[in-house]
Sequence to fold (120 residues):
Amino acid sequence: MEDRCGLDCCDFIHAHEDVVERVRRELPEEDTLYDLTELFRIFGDSTRVRILYVLFEAEMCVCDLAALLGMTQSAISHQLRALKNARLVKSRREGKTVFYALADDHVKTIIDQGLEHVAE
Fold:
């Protein structure tokens, strides 16, 4: 029977068990990997990334974000809800107005590293 792996196959039939076992011990739990996948899914929407980028500069309310990004307040609210559920933004109320900001410095770091990567 002919080997169907193509160029990605090993010449030998056995795995490098020491390496496999060492890496297996370092792998995060499946739940952690799922949470990480969900975090990156949030970054997979350009509107959400634009909102995060705007919030680098200033805390803003929904109407400010809608005016700046040329979107409806409803659309902005929908995206903010997803960002808040992912713990990427936080909110505070001042009277009847709710202001949004980045949840912490990690969010800016993630975006900055992504921008650096795509600029290479």
Remarks:
- The CA atoms of residues 79 and 117 lie 25 Å apart.
- The chain has six helices and three strands.
